[in-house]
């Protein structure tokens, strides 16, 4: 996840200037201050660090992604992997946990025959993220140049399944983003490959009327779904380009 250098939690500047390391939970929030460049031959003259209208990104980084290197990580002797999940959505955390859990379990089941599955990377590409890289693990750190500060957000979570009635084939869903009747959405479920369903015959639970769109925040609605769903299934949908 996030590399956390200056505009995120680790705050390298805090550690350097004050000796307060965010990795030990004592960062000083120095990353929130405004900074200027000063030339020692021109004392008193301050040069703002500007890259675009959104702010300065002197330490803007890509996101760390090591999903393709599970064998190397496991052999290194680490006891656990940390996911940078602060200020992240449930969609983000669920997707990352799902991908890494499946990859780790596959390796532990048989290290000799382990093969990386592209579906794990596909899952990570659907969440909100910056461009991915392998951080300080491979190559020279100075070779990384970043010319963008924005996130990739190609998918939205549109709902979380609350229950499913196998007799009526109706799913009760908590709305998370706008979704329409007839939309094809993808189901994100632990220990199961993602699959697609179509939301038919939508019904507004609160207003007790039929509807063709779930467009109120945390709206509870029902929809006819032929494929059985489970409580906590996440429904995601790609954004139209």
Specify the CATH homologous superfamily of the largest domain.
Translation factors
| Assembly state | single chain
Q: How much helical structure, as a percent, in the residues?
A: 10-25%
How is the biggest beta sheet arranged?
8 strands, antiparallel
Q: Give the SSE string.
A: HEEEHHHEEEEEEEEEEE
CATH topology of the largest domain: Elongation Factor Tu (Ef-tu), domain 3
Instruction: Calculate the mean pLDDT score and round it.
Output: 83
Low-confidence stretches: none
So how many helices?
4
Order of strands in the sheet with the most strands? 9-8-14-5-6-13-10-11
Q: How many strands appear in the DSSP assignment?
A: 14
Distance between the termini: 25 Å
SS-based structural class?
Answer: alpha+beta
CATH domain class name of the largest domain: Mainly Beta
Share in β-strands: 25-35%
Computed Rg: 22 Å
Write down the overall geometry: globular
Counting structural domains, the number is: 3
**From the 3D coordinates, which CATH architecture of the largest domain would you assign?**
Beta Barrel
Family: Belongs to the peptidase U32 family.
GO molecular function: peptidase activity
Protein name: U32 family peptidase
Domain Peptidase family U32 C-terminal: 153-235
């Amino acid at each position: 996840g996030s590399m956390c250098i200056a505009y995120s939690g680790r705050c390298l500047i805090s550690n350097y200037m004050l000796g307060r390391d965010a990795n030990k939970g004592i960062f000083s929030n120095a990353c929130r201050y405004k900074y200027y460049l000063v030339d020692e031959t021109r004392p008193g003259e301050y040069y703002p660090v500007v890259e675009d209208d959104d702010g300065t990104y002197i330490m803007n980084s890509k996101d760390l992604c090591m999903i393709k290197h599970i064998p190397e990580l496991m052999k290194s002797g680490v006891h656990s992997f940390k996911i940078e999940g602060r200020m992240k959505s449930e969609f983000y955390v669920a997707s990352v946990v799902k991908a890494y859990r499946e990859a780790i379990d596959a390796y532990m089941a048989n290290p000799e025959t382990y093969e990386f599955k592209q579906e794990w990377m596909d899952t990570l590409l659907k969440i909100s993220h910056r461009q991915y890289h392998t951080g300080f693990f491979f190559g020279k750190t100075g070779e990384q140049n970043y010319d963008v500060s924005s996130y990739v957000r190609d998918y939205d979570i549109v709902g979380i399944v609350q229950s499913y009635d196998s007799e009526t084939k109706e799913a009760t869903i908590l709305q998370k983003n706008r979704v329409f009747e007839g939309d094809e959405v993808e189901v994100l479920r632990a220990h199961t490959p993602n699959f697609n369903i179509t939301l038919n015959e939508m019904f507004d639970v609160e207003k007790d009327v039929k509807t063709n769109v779930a467009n109120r925040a945390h709206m509870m609605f029902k929809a006819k779904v032929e494929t059985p769903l489970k409580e906590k299934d996440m429904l995601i949908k790609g954004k139209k380009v």
